[in-house]
Design brief:
This protein has 219 residues and is an alpha+beta fold. The chain has a single domain, classed as Gcn5-related N-acetyltransferase (GNAT) (Aminopeptidase). 29% of the residues lie in helices and 29% in strands. The chain has six helices and eight strands, in the order ββαααβββαβαββα. A hairpin with a 5-residue loop joins β4 and β5. The longest helix is centred in the middle third of the chain and has 17 residues. The two termini are 21 Å apart.
Length: 219
């Protein structure tokens, strides 16, 4: 195994928190995703083995076991997003590549009940800063459907660059969908992404629906 330096870790900024996903999160994960099925479906990779409406805990336990195994092998950092300590979504830094690349992907979703509170921009800023300044990565990407304007606003407000269109990149909501590639590097945020976000008006717009989901694995 090749564990990641700086993992596991819990990060907080005001009421927003990131903590490593646990197996006992399966019930909260199921309840949140079933309740948000219509909110999530247009933006998430198609997974017949993980239907949003499933009432069984088994697929969620299996998914958590798989992503925790990836974390132990040093290729992802899967967090639960919390708000005032309550489970509110998920954020994962995944597809971590070392060597000369030192890059990764960020994917996230948030419970609709917490939208509009700056939860996702704050969580992304926390995660990216940790990836850059504690873990040692150099570049983080997010792939977002062109139609997902709210998630695009999150990336743009945080200073991610739009770098082009990836044709039919992921199977989303029953079809192969185009995605815009957004990226940020350490040179873009010498003082940290969270510091940049703190300087902005946090209530200038709503939180994104699920977005920045760059890999076929459910985030």
């Amino acid at each position: 195994m090749n564990r990641i330096r700086g993992w596991p870790i819990t990060l907080t900024e005001g009421p927003v928190g990131l903590r490593p996903l646990r197996l006992r999160d399966a019930a909260a994960l199921r309840e949140t995703r079933v309740r948000n099925a219509d909110w999530l479906r247009p933006w998430e990779p198609t997974h017949p083995e993980m239907p949003l409406q499933t009432s069984s805990l088994t697929p969620y336990v299996a998914m958590l076991q798989a992503i925790r195994r990836e974390a132990r092998h040093g290729v992802s950092m899967p967090w639960a997003v919390t708000y005032d300590g309550v489970f509110a979504g998920q954020l994962t830094i995944s597809a971590i590549v070392w060597g000369s690349a030192r890059s990764a992907q960020v994917g996230y979703w948030v419970d609709r009940a917490y939208a509009g509170r700056g939860v996702i921009p704050t969580a992304v800023a926390l995660a990216v800063d940790h990836a850059f300044f504690a873990v040692g990565l150099h570049r983080v990407e997010a792939s977002i459907r062109p139609e997902n304007r709210a998630s695009r606003r999150v990336a743009e407000k945080l200073g991610f660059r739009e770098e082009g269109l990836r044709r039919r990149q992921l199977h989303i909501d029953g079809a192969w969908r185009d995605h815009l590639c957004y990226a940020i590097t350490t040179e873009d945020v010498p003082g940290g992404l969270l510091a940049r976000w703190r300087r902005r008006d946090h209530v200038s717009g709503p939180d994104a629906p699920p977005g920045g989901t760059p890999q076929p694995e459910w985030p």
